[in-house]
Design goal:
alpha/beta; Rossmann fold; 2 domains; seven-stranded parallel beta sheet; six-stranded parallel beta sheet
Length: 397
Amino acid sequence: MKLRVGFNAKFLVDYNLRGFNRYTFCLLKQLFEQDSFEVVLFTERRSPIHPAFAQALPVETIVLPSPRSLVWEQIVLPSALRRHQIQLFHAPADGGVPAWRVCPYILTYHHAVDRSLEYLIGKGELSGTLADYLTQEQGIRGRYLKHRHALLRWIYLQRATRVIAVSQYGKWELVELLGVPEHKVEVIYEAADSSFCTTIPPVAVEAVRVKYRLPRGYLLYVGGFERRKNVEGLLRTFVEARKTGIEESLVLVGNGADLVGAKAVARSLGLEEGRDVVFLGRIHEDLPALYRGATAFITLSWGESFCFPVLEAMSCGTPVIASNLGAIPEIVTDGGILLDPRNMSETVEAIKVVTSRKELRAQLIARGLKRAKSFSWNKTAQQTANLYQEAIRNRRN
């Protein structure tokens, strides 16, 4: 008899294959192929599953109406889990675990970004205040939202039977900064989608370059534009690298709360949009070819719990220059150049040598491809399935 596994699928309303959605979708695709599970998706009426996801995941979907999201999560959902005989429930996106436990709950907790940044600031490793790295609402409402978030996070982590961390760094955040018992946390790495590979033909790479009017040589950044991503620091570093004679432009793919601010910084630095720097917004199908065509991928983020883009870049055979903070070092290891994002001269030198030395790029490509092979969604799904079975067995004992 198949195990009926429920999934909180509310985040699949948005066809944005980054972060939570990438993890949820890719994991579900692999679990769907396993004969031992019967997957059931749960969402609310205001968050219908995007048609592209629904078509790719032909599984039972239950849409539950509710006047408010918190009511749906804490009252409507657990009742439905019992009514539909769900034997295990997985919340894959940092929250969504009911306080009323009707079956074993698995929670994937990706990143305690607020606590890790506070830790680095408190140790003097980052300057300024938390507001310099995270956009937060101020005043009474800001304080309310902060306390509400802390309370809900406590409930989620307390009521989860087991917690999945997507890196050892993520486990450290959970155990050391949030007080989750170590035995409760399991590290299961994410992976790059199979579309990110080295078999993309040159004609496809050239077609994408022409489509987006990109220069023949460019450095690539993929990710958000939130302050913690340090896009402003990347732009300032790029300007200094240009002074050393590099000819590459900087292409930035993604969106986020501070995209407008990033464009303003670029203008203030004298970077001409469309020539020196290119902002592309969200890219889906063309993203592997963008990686493949780049001279190098670069990110100077202040902290990541995994960082899909570095793994995608390595999988595509693109040299990686990346921050040595957060989980990035354990994902990249020797597959790229790791550096302190606070040290501009070190980063400028890395950009200079990678763009000018073909033999170094070849070495980085080889090491990156080797490292990327350590990750696969099949492995992720199998380890997750093992955790499901363990949680079920422990409940019966």
